[in-house]
């Protein structure tokens, strides 16, 4: 055949396009599958916005939540509509930009959606072609730069490698830990991860250039397994938000097979929609509910700690498993033939489609340019670029011309929360089984993160550990503090380190000297920053706000504690009104009105008055502030002993009084609980009124064990929540009645009212002695109460000595009644109500014999 008769590649592509049959209008394509995945990805943002709106119910928080939820629902039920896809992307961009905190998966979401948004065409097949090229280019750039970031010294460390930690968390799951051999290739896993992350973009380039399905299937197979492993680990180790962001990307690795698999699944489900959709959703919900018990049985069905607190670990783990199965089906699905109802995809270059992968490359270069102080796209890669001590094998400080990374501070001690907890160890919040498995294989369970400014709303996970951070980060946090406390301080050392060049020979070849090469020794200086030196010339550089170009920072995250102190309109909380409309005046306070003249309901209303303004056009203060309970981790009972002459202290105070220190308890005061609702502050000799203590008489000695605080003018001993080794000894002075309390009852429908006078029983106590003994530890009683004491309880009175001597006993002196009943407590708190315990204890004392709301 002559050369002129040989068809070119463009002519072959055009002929294939003409030969491809037209797909039906309701058939699915790669963008349809992407829209379906995008709707579930935006579910994370909806959950985050819901928690923000729940803590602060304002219009500003409601608008992004409602708008994103609406378009998210439309994208879930109408993924084929192009207007729904574009609207969902646009609203998602706006919401992320306004409310996001610019973490790694947020950047991935922005780049992911841009590949579809920037390549939009009215012709849907042309849109798919351009989006496929843009998405593949972004995946190539993403894996290539993260593979380079992992080429460092820390990544291959057996003890501290994030790769080994993640792999250990995965194989430590109950389904896999029994399969782990003693010779498991732990040290080989970091090298395998680097090979995969460098090999995937190379394989994708080969598959896209030559049109070979083998290389594209290779990328889809290993990518699906790789990200499924990252999501299945138990939170907080799980990084399922990034896995949910990567699933839509793999749709465009094999776009035709992805559309075919989705078309097959949807057609099969729609054949019998009620039965099959119901069975699928029910099975999915069953797996989600059972997942915590299967993967973390030591939590007994409770959800593990999550940060950020999405609360979707079980849902995301099952979802990631389903998406992995879907991508594996896409991998092994046969190549589309000419008779299938799916249009062939021919990737086409686009200028706007190049923006996402360029954005990824620029973002990945930020750590090496000294702009961001943590790896932009490989956060858990053990990469270190700050402090003049880079551990990368590829780049050092060669491109840090501004010197922000080498100008760093070492924080030795501080009491400012945003500085003290700039680094948080999530490893302390791993489950006990995960910690045990990691310790068994000599893997460190430290898992440090850097939360945003004011972004850690939980208690500290461990004691403060000195750390280093770039000076610009400390400057950013100090400059943003509007109200600096008087007792706040920072003890730090500022160091300017010389650059460590990895490309020194390259600089020599070009004959260019590095701008910072003249620095050969680090220069350090110690500082103590507090309110007395604030505003002075020495700390002017620390207090100067960053310029917009330098202030490349995390997005501030909303606080989940209660912040709103005022609200508009009525104060509703549950079933009851926080502010009642009207209440009748007390009869003793209304002496001008003759009670005998009240005949009708109208006459009675004349005596009623308003006690609160319930109009909606005013701002009212909340009567009750609610915050989220702290359940993870549960804190143990502890104490703190503070000596007043040593304040303010810069280290954690001791838990107990120093050995040998004599405590002056005669002049001390104590705060203790005498009932479920009553607590008292008293000193020795004070008279205390409390609720009636049953089965006790005047002159009896009793002990209260729920002591909250003991203090003098020299020291204070605080309990959290109680002091376990402190007690209060009291003597009952009298059991008496209170004065008359008049109550008014009125039933308008029956036109009936009544006045009632009530007197309540109370017990008057005299505080005899305060006992504080750190060596004391109360052990639970091994044996139940003796039956001889239970005779008093059965008889509802104290037995006389003559009656006790008449009790039948055996030869050993044991009561015969012990054979019938050994004295076991029949209900929690029963013996305490009867006065048969050593000390009275009440909630929140962990040794209290009753529950919180029952006693």
TrEMBL record:
<keyword id="KW-0472">Membrane</keyword>
<feature type="transmembrane region" description="Helical">
    <location>
        <begin position="160"/>
        <end position="176"/>
    </location>
</feature>
<dbReference type="GO" id="GO:0003735">
    <property type="term" value="F:structural constituent of ribosome"/>
</dbReference>
<dbReference type="Pfam" id="PF00829">
    <property type="entry name" value="Ribosomal_L21p"/>
</dbReference>
<feature type="transmembrane region" description="Helical">
    <location>
        <begin position="31"/>
        <end position="53"/>
    </location>
</feature>
<feature type="region of interest" description="Disordered">
    <location>
        <begin position="1"/>
        <end position="22"/>
    </location>
</feature>
<feature type="transmembrane region" description="Helical">
    <location>
        <begin position="240"/>
        <end position="262"/>
    </location>
</feature>
<feature type="transmembrane region" description="Helical">
    <location>
        <begin position="312"/>
        <end position="333"/>
    </location>
</feature>
<feature type="transmembrane region" description="Helical">
    <location>
        <begin position="214"/>
        <end position="234"/>
    </location>
</feature>
<comment type="similarity">
    <text>Belongs to the bacterial ribosomal protein bL21 family.</text>
</comment>
<keyword id="KW-1133">Transmembrane helix</keyword>
<feature type="transmembrane region" description="Helical">
    <location>
        <begin position="131"/>
        <end position="148"/>
    </location>
</feature>
<feature type="transmembrane region" description="Helical">
    <location>
        <begin position="274"/>
        <end position="292"/>
    </location>
</feature>
<dbReference type="InterPro" id="IPR036164">
    <property type="entry name" value="bL21-like_sf"/>
</dbReference>
<dbReference type="GO" id="GO:0005762">
    <property type="term" value="C:mitochondrial large ribosomal subunit"/>
</dbReference>
<keyword id="KW-0812">Transmembrane</keyword>
<protein>
    <recommendedName>
        <fullName>Large ribosomal subunit protein bL21m</fullName>
    </recommendedName>
</protein>
<feature type="transmembrane region" description="Helical">
    <location>
        <begin position="59"/>
        <end position="77"/>
    </location>
</feature>
<dbReference type="InterPro" id="IPR028909">
    <property type="entry name" value="bL21-like"/>
</dbReference>
<feature type="transmembrane region" description="Helical">
    <location>
        <begin position="188"/>
        <end position="207"/>
    </location>
</feature>
<feature type="transmembrane region" description="Helical">
    <location>
        <begin position="354"/>
        <end position="371"/>
    </location>
</feature>
<feature type="transmembrane region" description="Helical">
    <location>
        <begin position="89"/>
        <end position="119"/>
    </location>
</feature>
């Amino acid at each position: 055949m002559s050369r002129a008769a040989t068809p070119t590649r463009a002519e072959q592509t055009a002929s294939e396009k003409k030969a491809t049959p037209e797909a039906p209008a309701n058939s699915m394509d790669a963008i349809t599958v992407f829209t379906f995945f995008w709707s579930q990805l935006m579910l994370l943002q909806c959950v985050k916005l819901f928690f923000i709106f729940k803590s602060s119910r304002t219009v500003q928080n409601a608008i992004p939540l409602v708008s994103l939820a609406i378009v998210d629902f439309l994208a879930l039920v109408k993924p084929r509509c192009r207007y729904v896809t574009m609207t969902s992307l646009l609203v998602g961009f706006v919401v992320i930009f306004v409310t996001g905190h610019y973490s790694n998966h947020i950047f991935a979401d922005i780049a992911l959606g841009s590949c579809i948004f920037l390549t939009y065409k009215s012709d849907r097949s042309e849109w798919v072609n351009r989006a496929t090229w843009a998405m593949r280019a972004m995946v190539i750039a993403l894996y290539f730069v993260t593979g380079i970031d992992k080429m460092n010294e820390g990544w291959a460390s057996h003890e501290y490698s994030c790769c080994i930690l993640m792999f250990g968390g995965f194989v430590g799951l109950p389904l896999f830990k029994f399969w782990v051999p003693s010779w498991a290739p732990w040290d080989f896993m970091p090298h395998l991860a680097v090979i995969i992350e460098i090999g995937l973009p190379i394989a994708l380039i080969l598959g896209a250039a030559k049109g070979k399905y083998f290389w594209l299937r290779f990328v889809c197979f290993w990518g699906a397994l790789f990200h499924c492993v990252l999501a299945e680990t138990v939170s907080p180790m799980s990084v399922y938000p990034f896995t949910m962001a990567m699933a839509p990307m793999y749709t465009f690795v094999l776009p035709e097979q992805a559309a075919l698999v989705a078309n097959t699944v949807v057609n099969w489900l729609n054949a019998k929609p009620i039965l099959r959709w119901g069975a699928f959703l029910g099975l999915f919900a069953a797996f989600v509910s059972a997942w915590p018990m299967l993967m973390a049985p030591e939590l007994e069905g409770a959800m593990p700690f999550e940060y950020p607190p999405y609360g979707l670990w079980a849902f995301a783990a099952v979802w990631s498993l389903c998406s992995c199965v879907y991508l594996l089906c896409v991998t092994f699905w046969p190549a589309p033939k000419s008779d299938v109802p799916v249009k062939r995809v021919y990737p086409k270059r686009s200028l706007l489609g190049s923006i996402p992968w360029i954005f990824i490359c620029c973002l990945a270069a930020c750590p090496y340019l000294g702009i961001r102080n943590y790896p932009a796209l490989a956060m858990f890669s053990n990469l270190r670029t700050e402090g003049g001590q880079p551990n990368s094998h590829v780049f050092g400080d060669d491109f840090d011309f501004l010197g922000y990374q080498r100008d760093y501070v070492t924080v030795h001690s501080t009491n400012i929360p945003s500085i003290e907890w700039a680094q948080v160890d999530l490893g302390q919040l791993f489950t006990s089984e995960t910690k045990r498995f990691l310790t068994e294989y000599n893997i460190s369970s430290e898992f440090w993160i850097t939360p945003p400014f004011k972004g850690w709303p939980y208690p500290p996970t461990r004691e403060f550990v000195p750390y280093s951070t770039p000076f610009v980060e400390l400057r950013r946090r100090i400059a943003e503090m509007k109200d600096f406390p008087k007792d706040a301080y920072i003890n730090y050392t500022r160091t300017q380190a010389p650059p460590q060049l990895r490309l020194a020979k390259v600089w020599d070849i070009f004959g260019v000297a590095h701008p910072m090469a003249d620095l050969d020794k680090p220069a350090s200086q110690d500082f103590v920053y507090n309110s007395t030196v604030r505003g002075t010339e020495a700390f002017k550089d620390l207090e100067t706000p960053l310029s917009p170009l330098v202030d490349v920072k995390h997005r501030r995250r909303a606080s989940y504690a209660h912040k709103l102190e005022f609200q508009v309109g009525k104060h509703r909380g549950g079933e009851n009104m926080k502010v009642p409309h009207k209440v009748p005046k007390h009869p003793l306070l209304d002496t001008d009105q003759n009670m005998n003249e009240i005949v009708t309901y109208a006459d009675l209303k004349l005596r009623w008055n308003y006690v609160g303004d319930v109009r909606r056009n005013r701002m009212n203060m909340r009567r009750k502030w609610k915050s989220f309970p702290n359940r993870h981790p549960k804190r143990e009972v502890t104490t703190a002993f503070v000596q007043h002459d040593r304040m303010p202290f810069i280290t954690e105070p001791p838990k107990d009084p120093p050995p040998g220190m004599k405590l002056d308890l005669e002049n001390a005061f104590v705060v203790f609980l005498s009932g479920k609702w009553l607590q008292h502050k008293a000193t020795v000799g004070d008279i205390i009124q409390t609720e009636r203590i049953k089965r006790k008489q005047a002159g009896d000695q009793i002990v209260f064990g729920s002591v909250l605080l003991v203090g003098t003018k020299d020291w204070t001993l605080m309990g959290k929540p109680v002091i376990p080794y402190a007690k209060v000894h009291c003597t009952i002075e009298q059991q008496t009645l209170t004065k008359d309390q008049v109550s008014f009852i009125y039933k308008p429908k029956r036109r009936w009212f009544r006045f009632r006078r009530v007197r309540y029983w109370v017990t008057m106590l005299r505080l005899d002695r305060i006992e504080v003994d750190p060596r004391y530890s109360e052990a639970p009683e091994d044996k139940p109460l003796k039956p001889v004491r239970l005779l008093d309880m059965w008889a509802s009175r104290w037995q006389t000595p003559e009656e006790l001597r008449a009790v039948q006993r055996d030869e050993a002196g044991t009561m015969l009644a012990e054979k019938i009943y050994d004295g076991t407590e029949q209900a929690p708190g029963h013996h305490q109500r009867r006065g048969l315990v050593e000390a009275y204890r009440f909630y929140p004392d962990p040794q209290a014999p009753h529950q919180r709301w029952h006693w």
